[in-house]
Amino acid sequence: MTSDLPKTSVAELLADKIVGVKPGALPASTERKCEDLLIDVVGLCVTARNEDYVGSALAGWEDDGPCTVIGHKRTLTAAGAAFVNGTAAHGEDFDDTFEGGPVHAGAVIVPAVLAACERHNADGRMALTGIAVGTEVLCRLSLVAPKAVHKAGFHPTAIFGAMGAAAGVGAALGLSARQIVDALGIAASMAGGIIEYLAEGAWTKRLHAGWAAQSGLRAALLARQGFVGPRTVFEGVHGLFNGFAHSTHGDYDALVGDFGAGWVTDTLAFKPYPCGTMAQPYIDCARRLARRGIKVEDIAEIVCEVAEGTVHRLWEPLADKQRPRNGYAAKFATPYLLATGFVHDGVGLGAFTEAAIRQPEVLALSAKVKYVIDPQNPYPDNFTGHIRATMKDRSVVEERQPHLRGGAHEPLTRQDITDKFALNLQHGGWTKAQSDATLRSLAKLYTGRIDLKEMRN
Q1: Strand, helix or coil for residue 194
Q2: Alpha helix (H) ranges present in 345-431?
Q3: Rounded to whole angstroms, how far apart are CA atoms 407 and 345?
Q4: CB neighbour burial string for 27-53, b if at least 16 within 10 angstroms, e if fewer
Q5: Of 68, 168, 272, 318, which has the most beta carbons under 10 Å away?
Q6: Can you tell me the distance from the alpha carbon of 108 to that of 123, in angstroms, rounded to the nearest whole number?
Q7: Mean pLDDT, rounded, of the chain
Q8: Using CA atoms, how far apart are residues 269 and 37, in angstroms rounded to an integer?
C-alpha cells in the first residue's frame, strides 16, 4: 500500500457511470447499432463454423455445458461458448471496427454477454444493456492512449476486450459498482495478445477476441462472488496502461468523461471486405482504378500514401505482403488485397484460398505495389486510401478514398447488414429458411428472453 493512491480511481468513476445505465434508457441510435452488432456477429459465427481453426477451438475446449456454440450441436460452459463464438466471429476478419482505436468490439462483447445471459440471466433487456456498455468501454479504452498498445506489440482488441467484456457482463448481470471495479481489476490480469501472428499468418489473432470474451466473463463472475481486484487498474504504476502501453499517462476523460451521455458505439464501422480494416479504402481505390479500363499489363508501378502506424501490420515486410505466405497472412497484406480488388472488382471470402493467393494476374500486380509514409495521414481517427499508378506510357492516374466505407462517414444500412448476414450464412452452409428464421429470432432477442437453441446446428 502507498500513500499517494487516488481517493477515487478511474475504475471507480467508470463503474459508477456503468451502473447508471439503466435498461430501456439507451438512445435509439445506440439500440439500433447493438441490433446491427448482434446480426453481424451471429452471421460471422455461422460463416466460420466449418473452418479448421473453429474446429480446433471447439475440440480443444473440454468443458461441456448448457451454452450455445453458434452453428454447432455441441454446447459448452458459458466461458467455452464465449471463447469459441468470439474466435469464430473474429476469425475471418470481417467483424466491426471502431475507427478511433482501432479495435473490434462485437466479436468480444456479443459472445461474452450472450453466454453470460444464456447461463445466468436470460433477460434480453439486460443483454442489450450489457452489449452497449461493454462495447462502449472497449472502444473508449482505445482512445486513452491511441496507437501505444499496438506500438508495444499487443493487439488492442485482446487487451481492451477483456476489460470491455468484464464491464458488459457485469452490466448484464446487474453487478454493483464495487463488483464492477473488482471485475475490471481482475480482467486486467487475464488480458493479453501479442501480434507475432503477423510473421507467418499464424492463427493466434483469431482467438484474441474469444479469449478476451471468456476472460471478461470469468472476471465478472469472480467479482460477483467477492473476489477483489485492484481499483487503480487503469492508472496505477503497475496498471493496465503501464503494462501494455508502457505509460500510465493518458486521456482518461475519453473513457469516463461523458460515459452514458454520449455513445461512441454509434460510430462503429461494419466492413465491406473480410480483411484488415485499414486496407479497405485502398481496395475501393483499386476497384475504381480498374473501372477506368486500365489493365494490369498497362501499369508500371503503384505507390500508395499510407499512415506510419499501419506499416508494420499491413505493409512490411513488403515482399511478404506482395506475396503472402498463406490465406490468413493475405488478410493483412495491402498489396495483395489491392491487387485482388483490382482484378476481381472486390475482395470476398473466397479471396484467401491457397489457389486465390497464387493467382498469377493478382501476384503480377501485387509485385508492383509500394508505399510511402504520409506524415499528415489522420490515422487512427480516420482511415483513408490512396493509389498513384504510373503507366508504362509514363502517364499517372490517382485515386483517393477520404474515409472507410461502412464507417461513420458512409455507414452501411440495415439492409446492407442483413444482406451480409444472408451471404455469411450461405457461406456457412445454412439454407435460406434457416437464415430467415435466425434473423426473425434475433429481431426479438433484446425484448424477450435469451434463447439461442435455434442457432445450434
Answers
A1: strand
A2: 360-366, 414-427
A3: 20
A4: eeebbebbbbbbbbbbbbbbbbbebeb
A5: 168
A6: 19
A7: 96
A8: 10
Element housing 214 (H / E)? helix 204-224
- Rounded Cα distance between 305 and 310, Å, is 11
- Answer whether 384's CB lies under 8 Å from 303's CB: no
Contacts 24+ apart (CB under 8 A), 357-365: 357/324, 357/326, 357/327, 357/330, 361/296, 362/336, 363/322, 363/323, 363/336, 363/339, 364/296, 365/296, 365/299, 365/302, 365/338, 365/339
Of 333, 364, 335, 344, the closest CA to residue 291 belongs to 344
Q: Supply the DSSP string of 66-83, one letter for each residue.
A: EEE-TT-S-EE-HHHHHH
* 298: Cα separation from own chain's centroid: 37
145-170 pLDDT per residue, tens: 999 999 999 999 999 999 999 999 99
Cis peptide before 380, with omega less than 30 degrees from 0?
yes
Note the pLDDT tens digit of each residue in 402-452: 999 999 899 999 999 999 999 999 999 999 999 999 999 999 999 999 999
Going by C-beta distance under 8 Å and a sequence separation of 6 or more, which residues neighbour residue 45? 70, 71, 85, 88, 89, 111
Residue 282 pLDDT more than 70? Answer: yes
From first CA to last CA, the distance across the chain in angstroms is 52
Give the pairing type, strands 75-76 and 299-306: unpaired
Give the tens place of pLDDT for each residue, 310-353: 999 999 999 999 999 999 999 999 999 999 999 999 999 999 99
**Does an H or E element contain 302, and which?**
strand 299-306
Torsion of CA 89, 95, 99, 101, to 10 degrees: 20
Nearest to residue 255, comparing CAs of 241, 243, 269? 241
| Cα distances (angstroms) measured from residue 267 to each of 82, 90, 405 | 24, 19, 12
Rounded distance between C-alpha atoms, residue 202 and residue 326, angstroms: 9
Cell numbers representing residue 418 in the block = 442483413
CB-count exposure of residue 150 (10 Å: 0-12, 13-18, 19+): buried
CA–CA dist 79, 219 (Å, integer): 11
3-state secondary structure of 32: helix
Helical (H) or strand (E) element with 160: helix 156-172
Residue spans of beta strands (DSSP E) within 15-89: 64-68, 75-76
Cell output for 128: 442489450
